[in-house]
Write a structure and sequence with these properties.
Pfam families: Amidohydro_1. The chain is an alpha/beta fold. Helix content is 35%, strand content 21%. The longest helix has 19 residues, at 433-451.
């Protein structure tokens, strides 16, 4: 299979007349530039490399447009999130995740890191298949066609010296050792090609996550860091809220970043999500370690988290990636613009990140964070492509390399993952994402209604 691109973004710069050759394993075998199209080529217009959504909670999509009237802050929003989590079972999560992954594909995300912590039954008891929820998410990705890094998450407590609440019981495994045993078993299930993940889409990559320094004691984090293979992608929510910093300082006398540094967790395989409220010393530690900082600007704005020091982190040596987090917005270009807009608002200056910088964060930064290799349009990278309409009412007249600052998900035409077209003009082989989402959300609403205690008549 060969794809001929009228214009392709290579290393952030627009290159004309590019032919991309697929290898049998779904990677890029070689590239030709400045060549005419051939009869056997699949003809594309303006093409981006695949874009990696480095942080997602798929089930949070159920809250879109349903919490805005509530006001409050992150902690009040979290109560609504817990209600949605309580309604999920493996079948419903497969249906909802499939719909969300379809929305991601038609919006231009070709890979996703699912930060997954809904492991067990609502009362904390394991399902008969201890990996039922994880395999449901993996199967949803495979059947939809998106590239998935499943970031299986350890979540052990409700905060410093606080056990999990009743609404958090299904997130926990009891101990770090128990989580590691379940993680090892999940790795074996995925490696064995379980029937639950035998769809035709790309293979699932298993990663890991520490939910946050408030959700695990220091000893548990040390156990997990010692027990995980060193090449596994590792993610953590970091300093999203000032309260998290205050509690960590009270418990350990350290900032969350300082605690991770003492544990030896700050290495290039670590991705820190949000990284909003950092000290100068935190920024230096993260930059010196070469971690990836994953920003989710639409979520950070929606939840009132604040504006993180993205430019300072990049200047210090950290790599940047972008994510959709709560999926209140699923649009890689709005995340990229949100990153730049936040910097402009905080600094009073334009051009804090160049268009190639934003493309790098969307593509190579995201893929590196997810353990998916180099990303981008280069030999050996996955053959993941996103074709854009460069002549829409939004994009007409823009330079191809500046499309991250003007395009939206509505401009995505075709999406290729592993050399296979998985979305075209807003549709996937699985169906219309809007219809899939509507059906999944109706079922979720019915389930929430069934489990909500009724007021006495």
């Amino acid at each position: 299979m060969t794809y001929w691109c009228a214009t392709a973004l290579i290393d952030g710069q627009s290159v004309n007349a590019v032919r991309v050759h697929a290898a049998p394993d779904g990677t890029i075998a070689w590239l030709e530039t400045g060549v005419p199209a051939c009869d056997d080529d699949v003809l594309l217009g303006t093409v981006f490399p695949g874009m990696g959504d480095a942080h997602s909670h798929a089930f949070h999509r159920a809250l879109r447009g349903r919490t805005q009237a509530d006001g409050g802050d992150f902690w009040r929003w979290r109560e609504s999130m817990y209600a949605a989590a309580s309604a999920l079972d493996p079948d419903l999560y497969y249906e909802l995740a499939s719909a969300v992954f379809a929305e991601m594909l038609v919006s231009g995300w070709t890979a996703v890191g699912e930060f997954h912590y809904v492991h067990h039954r609502p009362d904390g008891r394991p399902y008969p298949d201890a990996h039922a929820m994880e395999l449901a998410v993996a199967a949803a990705a495979r059947d939809t066609g998106i590239r998935l890094t499943l970031l299986d998450t350890c979540y052990l407590r409700g905060g410093a010296n606080r056990p999990l609440s009743d609404l958090q019981l299904r997130f926990g495994d009891g101990s770090a050792d128990a989580w590691l045993r379940r993680w090892d078993g999940l790795r074996d299930s995925l490696d064995a090609g379980s029937h639950a993940v035998a769809g035709s889409g790309p293979a699932v990559t298993l990663g890991a996550a520490l939910h946050s320094v408030r959700a695990l004691p220091r000893s548990a984090m040390a156990t997990i860091l010692a027990g995980l293979p060193p090449t596994v992608p590792l993610h953590i929510h970091l300093s999203e809220q000032p309260q998290e910093n205050a509690e960590c300082l009270a418990e350990y006398g350290l900032t969350p970043t300082g605690l991770l540094h003492e544990l030896g967790a700050l290495t290039p395989r670590l991705s820190v999500v949000h990284a909003t409220h950092l000290t100068d010393a935190d920024v230096k530690l993260l930059g010196d370690a070469g971690v990836t900082a994953v920003f989710c600007p639409t979520t950070e704005a929606d939840l009132g988290d604040g504006i993180g020091p993205a430019r300072r982190l990049a200047d210090a040596g950290a790599r940047l990636a972008l994510g959709s987090d709560q999926n209140a917005v699923v649009d890689p270009f709005l995340e990229a613009r949100g990153l730049e807009a936040g910097e402009r608002l905080a600094s009073g200056r334009r051009g804090r990140f160049s268009p190639p910088d934003l493309t790098e964060a969307l593509t190579r930064g995201g893929y590196a964070s997810l353990g998916l290799g180099t990303g981008g349009l280069q030999v050996g990278a996955w053959l993941d492509l996103v074709e854009l309409d460069a002549a829409s009412v939004r994009t007409v007249g823009a330079s191809a390399n500046q499309l991250p600052l003007v395009a939206t998900a509505s401009d995505v035409r075709r999406v290729i993952v592993g050399g296979r077209i998985v979305a075209s003009d807003g549709l996937t082989p699985a169906g219309d994402p809007a219809l899939l989402l509507g059906a999944a959300l109706r079922r979720l609403d019915e389930t929430i209604a069934d489990i909500t205690p009724k007021e006495p008549a």
